[in-house]
Amino acid sequence: MNANTPLLIPGLEAIAGDYRGLICDVWGVLHNGVTGFRPARDALARYRQETDGAVVLVTNAPRPAGPIREQLGNLGIDREAYDDVVTSGDVTRLHIKKYAGRPVLHIGPERDLPLFDETGVTLGREDDAAAIVCTGLVDDTREVPDDYREQLKRLAAARLPMICANPDIVVERGNSLIWCAGALARLYEDLGGSVMILGKPHAPIYDAALDRLSAITGAPITRWDVLAIGDGLPTDIRGAVSQDIDVLFITGGIHASDFGPTDTPDEALIRRRLAEEGLRARAALPKLAW
């Protein structure tokens, strides 16, 4: 990021031609859990049409890709906008399979149970589990991480490893902030527990996305061919930067209140925050648009 080059750009079109593929975040960029963002959907569709590049959506959702595609369709994000989806659930399932034939303790809502399909594990109790698989809070509309403190103390004392299927700490659902599995994983580590996290900002999910882009295009795609689009500094932006992938930072997502008016963010504030976090971005937009 050159200090003399404007960071804020008018739209994705300004830099789209420099990349053969996009790795795009979902929650906060394409929707807020309640409403789909039509300009963001259109921007990805235009990218695919006008550059012949591929788009893989990468999300920390703790479920396989199938239910995510269905959710996206219900929110108006149709298949014209993307080629495929890679989820934290997808990469987490590969690790869960290492416990095939043994019980694991699931912490999370019933809607995440498809994560365990065809993994070979059974769902157990605290006293017989070989590991914990955390997908979130059971009732994220009413519970907070501290509600789990006593249970997590017991599990940490028993030295059960935790597999965290969603590294996000919080997400926006409509106008509300919702606690995610990453918050429980952070608490578990604070209590002395061992945690494995495979989604953003960690390498396995990026490796999976790059493999998927290469398969879609029929030719090897490297990190230098790709632009990552995201709104979360500790997940999307840190993850891409750690993998040497260029970033388009969507400032109007989870950090919108940090940069002034959502639709007209202050570039100096954006640059300062990136510097404070030890991060960088190729460009920034308040909201994804072409």
Automatic annotation (TrEMBL):
CDD domains: HAD_like. PANTHER family: 4-NITROPHENYLPHOSPHATASE-RELATED (PTHR19288), OS08G0542600 PROTEIN (PTHR19288:SF90). One of its GO terms (molecular function) is phosphatase activity. Pfam families: Hydrolase_6, Hydrolase_like. The lineage of its organism: Bacteria, Pseudomonadati, Pseudomonadota, Alphaproteobacteria, Hyphomicrobiales. InterPro entries: HAD-like_sf (IPR036412), HAD-SF_hydro_IIA (IPR006357), HAD-SF_hydro_IIA_hyp3 (IPR006356), HAD_sf (IPR023214). Transmembrane segments: none annotated. GO terms for cellular component: cytoplasm. This is TIGR01459 family HAD-type hydrolase. Keywords: Hydrolase.
